[in-house]
Every structure is written in C-alpha cells, then in structure tokens.
User: Fold this.
Amino acid sequence: MIAYATRFFTLHPGDVIMTGTPEGVGPVEPGDTMVAAVDEVGRMTVKVRAY
Assistant:
C-alpha cells in the first residue's frame, strides 16, 4: 500500500495511512461527516460529498 500511495503523493515522517473499516460501520453517504482521531496526534474531520 505504501508503494502504491507514493505514486500519487509524497509521504513525510509522521504521515498516517488509514485503511480498513471498523466493525459496525455502514456505507458512507454524501452528507455524512467522517472523523478520525489519534491521541497525541490530532483530529481530522471530512465531509463526504458526491462527485
């Protein structure tokens, strides 16, 4: 996955590649808000939109 990702963007020390789906998560729909948080690193919020 790392080799594939680096074809599209540069990774820097400390970058995080998140994969997979936690148990109990349903389909993501336009209008949903996704939040990823890592203690001592930070929080990222992304609003899902349709193409």
About this structure: The two ends are 24 Å apart (CA to CA).
